[in-house]
Amino acid sequence: MFIDEIKIYARAGHGGKGSVAFHREAYVPKGGPSGGNGGRGGSVILQADHDLNNLIAQYYVPKLIAQDGEGGMGKGMDGHAGKDLIIKVPCGTLVWRLPSTKPAETGDDEDAETDRPVLQSSTGKRPVFRTSGGVTAQEIDLSAEEDSEATTDSEKGEVVADLTEHGQQFILCKGGRGGLGNRNFATAARQTPRFAQPGEPGDEGDFLFELRIMADVGLVGYPNAGKSTLLTAISRARPKVAPYPFTTLHPQIGIVEYKDFKRLVVCDVPGLIEGAHQNVGLGHAFLRHIKRCKILVLLLDMAGTDNRAPWDEYHQLLKELELYDPAMLEKPRYVVANKMDEPAAEENLKKFKRKVKKTPVLPIAAGFDEGIDQFKKLIREAVEEVA
């Protein structure tokens, strides 16, 4: 099963409550306050891992709840902190904070009118990034002007994280602070405080994890154009190959290896059809996986197996890419004519060059390994130019 989008609920651990206790010992008739502090709650932390290729783990565990902090104890003993919950996700995972469906709460400020200490929650703060080196960025106030560039979507909400590097960490929900015990509130005028702070609640929310595969080369084409056959010819990937459209139902990844140990990652995207930019045929689910590719390869069925003219396929593919995201056409792209072993392919290739001028075309026959070496050389040089 391939899962590239999943909604999850995450909640950090609540802080433990502070203790109300007093020192009791022989020959010390009036011991002072000795209530310990509560432990902090555990945080929910995401960590990018290049060994994963989909979000199936979150599919089976859609609720991520970290451990609560332990309450304080007598004799000045602080409670244990809750254990952080570290969730590994594939590199290329986008995290969206979904709009809250809870009604707005109307507080009555009763806490502000009493002298009892109350911890304020850290709402209004952006979660914290961590790198594999352990460096943690400071919290950023969401009301700052710098936050105006945040990526938003009317349905998905706001992007809060983009995990692209192996080992990169992101604090999705921060654990609540533990409450202070009564020993912290002893003063000369109030030597026996009989109250302590409650623990701070941990952050929580609904999120959408969206995987966008990170590859060097993206194979784009109509169904039954031979993309899976080409991926099989250039790598050790073994996607399903059959003579009918939509054999490939989810993206496939192949690693192209060269004699000098150079490696390229190639993504085979399921076939696009007209209207893919409007999510026809699950177009959005396919198109988003090539947004991170360095170069695009438009694979055309030059034999016209499904009664489609190759030049019409070419223009329609460009149209769908542009309507989905105009920036897609800014990527370097190359045209490859497949199925050149078919009788009609040679004549169609001549017509294609007349109709689509100034567009180099590489003819191949992936099913018979013809032109594969030239194709591997082409994509390597193209990727190195971009890099």
What does this structure look like?
Mean pLDDT is 81; it is low at 106-150. Strand 15 (333-338), helix 5 (345-355) and strand 16 (361-363) form a beta-alpha-beta unit. The protein starts with a strand and ends with a helix. It has helices at 56-60, 227-234, 283-287, 310-324, 345-355, 372-386; strands spanning 5-11, 44-49, 63-65, 85-90, 93-97, 129-130, 152-153, 157-163, 169-173, 204-211, 217-220, 252-257, 263-268, 295-301, 333-338, 361-363. It is α/β, with parallel strands linked by helices. The chain has a six-stranded mixed β-sheet with strand order 3-1-10-5-8-7, with no helix packed on it. It has a six-stranded mixed β-sheet with strand order 12-13-11-14-15-16, sandwiched between helices. The protein is rod-shaped and about 105 Å long. The chain has two domains: 1-211, GTP1/OBG domain (Spo0b-associated Gtp-binding Protein, Chain: A, Distorted Sandwich), CATH 2.70.210; 217-386, Rossmann fold. It contains six helices and 16 strands.
State the main characteristics.
Spo0b-associated Gtp-binding Protein, Chain: A; Rossmann fold; 387 residues; 16 strands; alpha/beta; 15% helix; single chain; 21% strand; 6 helices; rod-shaped; six-stranded mixed β-sheet; 2 domains
